[in-house]
């Protein structure tokens, strides 16, 4: 299974479409971790599973998404309710509560992925206003029975950022 994961596009519509169009034929699911600042019925987010971020005022997105695909339980949230700019502990507790083994979140504008207690956490960074690294990023996550490959990409060029990308055993 392959997931396209993006976050924090903050009002950009054409740029979201460019990323989706670049990868839509190679992925199984499209995920936006919030702060799209688009409307729930916007054509740019058609087919994209999107959660509500702290800047999505008036939008009717869900606060969280939980999906199960075989042995994979995916949990998506923006992260602002879990204080992810300071610590990952509340988010890890929520992952445990919902039985997730893959957690996607945004909010901090910091691209990162890490494994903790058998749960893989992915923050694709910000498509519009990155804090770290300086590149505008998104993720393609390729999940097999034995491993998960997390590949970060630069938004404009679509170039893979190998220094950020990681592979984890399942």
CATH architecture: 4-Layer Sandwich
* The CATH homology group name: Metallo-dependent phosphatases
Specify the CATH class: Alpha Beta
* Strand percent estimate: 25-35%
Strand order of the largest sheet: 3-2-1-9-10-11
Q: The CATH topology, please?
A: Purple Acid Phosphatase, chain A, domain 2
Keyword list:
170 residues; mainly beta; Purple Acid Phosphatase, chain A, domain 2; 6-stranded mixed β-sheet; 5-stranded mixed β-sheet; 11 strands; Phosphodiesterase_MJ0936/Vps29; Metallo-depent_PP-like; metal-binding; EC 3.1.4.-
Overall description:
It is a single chain. This protein has 170 residues and is mainly β. The chain starts with a strand and ends with a strand. The longest helix is centred in the first third of the chain and has 10 residues. The protein is 12% helix and 33% strand. Strand 5, helix 2 and strand 6 form a beta-alpha-beta unit. The strands form two sheets. Strands 3-2-1-9-10-11 form a six-stranded mixed beta sheet, covered by helices on one side. The protein has one domain: 4-Layer Sandwich (Purple Acid Phosphatase, chain A, domain 2). The radius of gyration is 14 Å and the shape is globular.
List the helices and strands and how they pair.
Layout: E1 2-6, H1 14-23, E2 29-32, E3 48-50, E4 64-69, E5 72-77, H2 89-98, E6 102-104, E7 112-116, E8 119-123, E9 137-143, E10 147-154, E11 166-169
Parallel strand pairs: 1-2, 2-3, 5-6, 6-8
Antiparallel strand pairs: 1-9, 4-5, 7-8, 9-10, 10-11
